[in-house]
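Hello,

Our lab assistant flagged a job as stuck in the queue for most of the afternoon. It eventually completed. Since we weren't sure the result was trustworthy after the delay, we are filing this so someone can double-check. Below is the sequence as submitted and the structure that was eventually returned. Let us know if re-running is recommended.
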Amino acid sequence: MPSRETAAPYQAIARLITAIGRDDFGAAAFDLVSREIQADHIVVQFVEGHRIRGLFTEGKVLARIADAVNRRYLERYHMLDRSLSSFRDLGEGPPVVTRFDPKLNESPTYSAYFFERTGLCDKLSIVNNRGDSMVCCNLYRLEASGPFDKHNVERAAQVAPVLMAALWRHAGEAGKVSLPSMRVSTEPGEAERRSLAALSQREFEICRRLLAGASTEGVALDLGISPHTVRTLRKRLYKKLQVNSLGDLFARYLGAMSAVSSGER
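-- returned structure --
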């Protein structure tokens, strides 16, 4: 007869499978990863082509804060998350567990918004690609819990196959998602892509941050340059992109930047 410790993972897995396609799936997924990986929060995104949508966010972070942060991520901040393009480079195959790489997200604005504001200190991602689609399961630890340790990472690798299989099934069956989809209203045109490609690397980085919602001062802090330099380069990139205001920039280039950023330059 199995012990309680042995039975616990199977009970959590059974609950997860039973909840596929239901509103309580996020809670079941969190129950599994909190028991087995000691995660404090879970956020799952589904990427299809150049579109990204949130499946759910669940855990110990206050729901009000978690929802606000993830809405902002889906709307804009995903363009600053270079992890997404690095996950694409993993290719198809079994699920992969990756540790958070600060080098991929050196933006102080990104770090302040997603870690300092929420009290999170560490992140593990379980990623699986199928064709042009990807499920990204992000697991977080609060500062009070400390970073994930080696055992947590090893356990995540063991849980990953069944967790990811359930996530793919849920993504396909869920009639609606608990977070809004960030969708490109029209497929980004080739002209917009070419215009973005014509920017210098510095202009491109400024443009990406402006479209992610960063202020002039925030862009300057991220890139280690002065606000005056940001304003000068902003005028230059406006001219190259043939826009007259930030509103014009959003209207014409938000979709194209999202597409370009998801595949990187």
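-- support follow-up --
The delay was a queue issue, not a problem with the job. The result is valid. Residues 190-263 form a domain with the Arc Repressor Mutant, subunit A fold (CATH 1.10.10.10). Strands lie at 41-48, 51-59, 96-99, 120-130, 133-142, 181-182.
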